Amino acid sequence: MILVLLLCAAFLSAAEVAFFSLETDDYEKIQQDNRNVGVRLLKLKEDTRRLHATILISSSVVNVAVILLFNAVLTKALSPQVLGDWAANLALSTGFSLNMSTEIMGKSLGFLIALAGATFLIILFAELVPKVYARLNKVYVSSIMVQPMYFIMTLGKPLIGAIVGWTKAVERQLAMAPYSTGGLASRKDIDEAIELTVSRAEDTDQEKDILKSLLKFGDVTVSQIMCARVDVVAVDIQSSYNTLLEVARESGYSRIPVYNDDFDNVMGILYVKDLLGHLRESEDFNWQQLIRTSVLYVPETKKISDLLKEFQRQRLHMAIVVDEYGGTSGVVTLEDIMEEVIGEIKDEFDDEPEVIFQKIDDANYIFEGKTLLNDVCRVVGIDTDTFDEVKGDADSFAGLILELLGDMPREGQEISYNSFHFRIVAVNERRIERILITIASGE
Asked: What is the reported pLDDT for 224?
């Protein structure tokens, strides 16, 4: 029985390390291998406080059970009289005088021996070894422990919920106590600190923007910065060599995705520099041999901080963004990620602005509907999370309007949200083309 309890304690310790060391890529891998396990794991991740409380409570119960059972086994193997004689001899040899019966001394010594022995076994076999193993095999351990942990959380929901609620109440009281810092600073607090600490000189506005962008960097997803499918410059693999050269000249891009029949079927990436040695080739030149087939596919929901690590690891500068059905949503580049931090990057080939808009005055701007919400917010000078409560899954300005209305608007229709006023300037049967945004004074 002791062995079974130690095994349970080992599994709980391993689960604690595995669950809380998983990264975004690990969740994606688990979901690809077993969708049901991935869904359960994401549900556990949504409430990490309850998950942590479940593991701690379960581990404590199992560890106490091991100590008590170990004590029972020791008491059965050695009578209280024998243990009492040991305790008396120990007291005499150390010069202590214990005014208690031999039986009580025996039970006390037995419990101390049981406590020491059980603690040694728990630390070695239920803490150190399983935690080291879990750190090296976190995906495997998480996959096998997600179902038992989900069952334990469901079974002990009332007790765990009460304990979590009690700890939250204690945290609130501690936060209100004198000299308390109130816990971790919020994003708003840090924004205010940046405003206060960065110099007031005219040339420090960009420095402030970079610091604030770094603060939000870990929360930005690929879908918020990618080049949407309708704006991607790509070429069909069946195209002639002259057509390819024309596309390369007009676009000015250094990397061009190549697809077969449809952009959902991307075959690879063509590096324009690979064409330099073949500029004098005839129209029937087999340019397809220059395509690089090592394509990185990423989901729309991937965090750009994780994508940056992926780019560094694989030494790539471009990735194809796919939706939940496997269709191509667009492309994202290393430049897109860098621009999210330091602002728009221009080179000698960038004749047109990255974000196309018309500034009427300081309170009125006209944007294309396909413009990303993050870019709209940056241009008009508001926080990029201003519309988070109402945008739903939308990432573009047109998507925000559709979320607010729930239907395709008509030209000239007006919508208001908080201190913002929107008017549809141009719309066709399929999409919203241009939108006027008016910012009320005080924003």
From this structure: 82
Of 16, 7, 21, 13, which is closest to residue 128 (Cα–Cα)?
A: 13
Exposed, middle or buried: residue 307 (CB in 10 Å: 0-12, 13-18, 19+)?
Answer: buried
User: Hey, which residues does 415 pair with through a beta bridge?
Assistant: 422
Q: How far apart are CA 249 and CA 242, in angstroms?
A: 11
For residues 107 and 80, the answer to whether their CB atoms sit within 8 Å is yes
Can you give the pTM of this predicted structure?
0.45
Taken in order of first residue, the domains within the chain and their CATH numbers are 2-165 (no CATH), 187-218 (no CATH), 222-342 (3.10.580.10), 357-439 (3.30.465.10)
What's the rounded Cα separation, in Å, for the pair 280 and 278? 6
d(CA 50, CA 40): 14
In degrees, rounded to 5, the angle at the alpha carbon of residue 338 between the alpha carbons of residues 332 and 342 is 140
DSSP E strands in 180-237: the ranges are 227-228, 235-236
Each residue of 238-260: pLDDT tens digit?
999 999 999 988 888 889 999 99
